[in-house]
């Protein structure tokens, strides 16, 4: 069935954009349009999707609405679109294009068919694989990773079955084998594999190369391999436990933080990691009405679930460590590899794992479950401990998954006193939690609110809108990228809070766009948010640097000529991508991809907030 523009327009206003409908308000064939074409062609089982040119979101409406903006030159747009579809990709694409008149304005309806399996993946020739291919995830177009390539090529072999060349059974840590036998016997004393010798046991667990049983594969290396073999083959596949003073990342390289690098057999290392974190956590007691002392703090089981899930589900294709960052008010676990399971389904029954053999060993030893209930268990345990519920963030763009555990008891006496300032609004518990979260973390978005309140997107939008109307929060971004920061009337705590035996400032961690300051525990950073201030900054630059920027604007800007200038600008102060793009007169998304990402990879610049890549005040600094 083919839908008309009228029908698609009604669907947009009823349900917003969806996996098979995308609205583009522009009148030109932008790169974003071509990314959607690529995603529709690639997404398995979708069948294809519609692109509507000339229909835009109405940002002035209270609820998400779309309006007919129209296409000014439909003939030119069709020509450009057809030309790019024929030449930009590895194979030509032939979408169906039709022009319709709606309310006196021209709208172009494009239908893109899903490609046959033998022709996938479609990708941009200039970018190659895997990053040049895209998939349709929800209503977004996401760049592919190595994990996606296995979907396209129907490779059923998981990465944890990859042979490790040069390894042998002599590289096994005997203590790891003993720990497995001990844990397995506790679960099932008559398990058949307990009667096997070590070589047979490893083979039965899928931890050796099937073609050469004397050679380990990735599962065997990671679960049972010695520290020595892991360091010599994959030195970056480790876990870094980082202790950061305060509530924000240490932006000053002279302020040292404490870090412990851990590697070794997973079945042993996870205990050392959990013990190290748990020993560093605050412990306390609450007295109930009957004068019974109850221990309070982060539940050990919730911490274990978070650590086990990180080690079991991370992408071991990525040569970078898992980071466990311990702030004064929270723990963040940043794991390489986005969530294979859709974010909307996190916490629901059903498990999807990228490392099935590692997961099977964890399941057999009762270290983890495989029913998809780990996140739900974490939420239940945090709620029972009267802690703010954990939040989860999956990024396909940066190929990582972040878990945040706030070490904050919700509605303790101080919170009750603080929240009493807003009693006149009649807020529910979820909205109160959101205010505490914004106060502690600096920002919140719809997805995080849904996780905390266990509600759908419409209810979350309505309740956040109530907070915005009361000026307790302020919205930034637009559409699905909207997030909320402290508002004008979000009253800070009247005094600093004594946490873990020391005085800490826990005012909003960071985001004040009503003024020019970013609070990072006493350090003031001028963010110069609007374009007039950016122009003022340019005028205040050293004369030679300002001249070079003006000269670059007048001619073609090659990467090699622009990079040194970017480094000089970012050496003056942390610069946002929007500010840099304005200075150099480029589109933000183009500038970020073309200039900033290469500099990050070359380690010439770094993030101001590396622990939260999507931080609303993310900026870039030159590494000196």
Question: What do these coordinates show?
Answer:
The structure is a single chain. Strands 10-9-13-14-16-15 form a 6-stranded mixed β-sheet. Strands 1-2-6-5 form a 4-stranded mixed β-sheet. The protein has a 3-stranded antiparallel β-sheet with strand order 17-19-18. It has 4 domains: 5-152, Methyltransferase, Cobalt-precorrin-4 Transmethylase, Domain 2, CATH 3.30.950.30; 169-406, Heat Shock Protein 90 (2-Layer Sandwich), CATH 3.30.565; 413-523, Orthogonal Bundle (Arc Repressor Mutant, subunit A); 527-622, Orthogonal Bundle (Arc Repressor Mutant, subunit A), CATH 1.10.10. It is α+β, with helices and mostly antiparallel strands. Strand 7 and strand 8 form a beta hairpin. The protein is 36% helix and 18% strand. It is built from 21 helices and 25 strands.
- What summary fits the major beta sheet? 6 strands, mixed
Q: What's the Cα radius of gyration?
A: 26 Å
For the record, the CATH class of the largest domain is: Alpha Beta
The best one-word shape is: globular
Assign a percent range to the helix content: 25-40%
What's the CATH topology name of the largest domain?
Heat Shock Protein 90
How many domains comprise the coordinates?
A: 4
Structural class: alpha+beta
Termini gap: 59 Å
- Tell me the strand percentage band: 15-25%
The largest sheet has its strands arranged as 10-9-13-14-16-15
Mean model confidence by pLDDT: 81
Number of helices: 21
CATH architecture title of the largest domain: 2-Layer Sandwich
How many β-strands, per DSSP? 25
User: What is the subunit arrangement here?
Assistant: single chain
């Amino acid at each position: 069935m083919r839908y008309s523009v009228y029908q698609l327009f009604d669907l947009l206003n009823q349900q917003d954009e969806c996996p098979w409908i995308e609205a583009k308000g522009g009148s030109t064939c932008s790169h974003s349009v071509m990314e959607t074409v690529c995603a529709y062609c690639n997404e398995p089982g979708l069948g294809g999707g519609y692109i509507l040119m000339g229909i835009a979101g109405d940002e002035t409406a209270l609820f998400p609405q779309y309006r007919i903006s129209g296409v000014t030159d439909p003939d030119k747009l069709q020509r450009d679109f057809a030309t790019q579809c024929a030449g930009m990709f590895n194979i030509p694409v032939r979408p169906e294009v039709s022009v319709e008149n709606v309310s006196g304005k021209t709208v172009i309806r494009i239908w893109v068919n899903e490609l046959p399996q033998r022709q996938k993946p479609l990708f941009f020739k200039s970018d190659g694989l895997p990053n040049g291919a895209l998939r349709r995830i929800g209503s977004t177009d996401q760049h592919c990773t190595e994990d996606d390539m296995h979907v396209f090529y129907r490779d059923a072999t998981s990465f944890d079955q990859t042979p490790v060349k040069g390894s042998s059974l002599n590289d096994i840590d005997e203590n790891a084998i003993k720990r497995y036998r001990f844990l397995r016997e506790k679960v099932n004393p008559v398990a058949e594999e307990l009667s096997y010798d070590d070589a047979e046991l490893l083979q039965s667990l899928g931890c050796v190369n099937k073609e050469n049983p004397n050679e380990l594969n990735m599962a065997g290396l990671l679960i049972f391999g010695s520290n020595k073999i892991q360091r010599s083959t994959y030195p970056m596949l480790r876990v870094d436990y980082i202790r950061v003073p305060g509530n924000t990342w240490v932006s000053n390289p002279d302020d040292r933080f404490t870090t412990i690098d851990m590697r070794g057999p997973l079945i042993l290392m996870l205990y050392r990691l959990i013990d190290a974190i748990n020993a560093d956590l605050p412990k306390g007691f609450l007295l109930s009405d009957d004068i019974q002392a109850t221990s309070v703090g982060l539940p050990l089981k919730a911490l274990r679930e978070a650590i086990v899930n990180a080690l079991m589900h991370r992408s071991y294709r990525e040569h970078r460590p898992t980071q466990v960052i311990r702030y004064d008010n929270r723990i963040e676990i940043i794991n390489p590899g986005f969530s294979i399971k859709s974010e909307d389904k996190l916490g629901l029954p059903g498990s999807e794992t990228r490392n099935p053999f590692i997961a099977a060993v964890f399941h057999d030893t009762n270290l983890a479950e495989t029913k998809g209930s780990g996140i739900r268990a974490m939420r239940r345990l945090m709620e029972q401990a009267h802690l703010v519920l954990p939040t989860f963030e999956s990024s396909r763009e940066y190929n990582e998954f972040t878990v945040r555990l706030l070490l904050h008891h919700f509605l303790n006496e101080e919170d009750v006193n603080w929240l009493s300032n807003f009693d006149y609004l009649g807020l529910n518990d979820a909205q109160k939690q959101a205010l505490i979260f914004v106060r502690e973390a600096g920002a919140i978005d719809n997805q995080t609110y849904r996780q905390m309140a266990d509600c759908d997107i419409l209810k979350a939008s309505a309740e956040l809108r109530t907070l915005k109307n009361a000026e307790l929060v302020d919205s930034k971004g637009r559409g699905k990228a909207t997030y909320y920061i402290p508002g004008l009337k979000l009253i800070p705590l009247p005094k600093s809070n004594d946490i873990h035996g020391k005085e800490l400032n826990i005012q909003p961690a960071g985001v004040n766009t009503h003024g020019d300051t970013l609070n990072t525990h006493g350090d003031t950073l001028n963010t110069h948010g609007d374009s007039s201030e950016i122009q003022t900054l340019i005028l205040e630059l050293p004369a030679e640097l300002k001249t070079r920027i003006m000269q670059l604007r007048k001619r073609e800007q090659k990467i090699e000529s622009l990079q040194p200038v970017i480094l000089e600008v970012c050496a003056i102060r942390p610069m946002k991508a929007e500010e840099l793009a304005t200075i150099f007169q480029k589109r933000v998304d183009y500038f970020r991809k073309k200039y900033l990402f290469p500099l990050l990879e070359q380690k010439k610049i770094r993030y101001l907030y590396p622990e939260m890549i999507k931080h609303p005040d993310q900026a870039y600094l030159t590494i000196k």
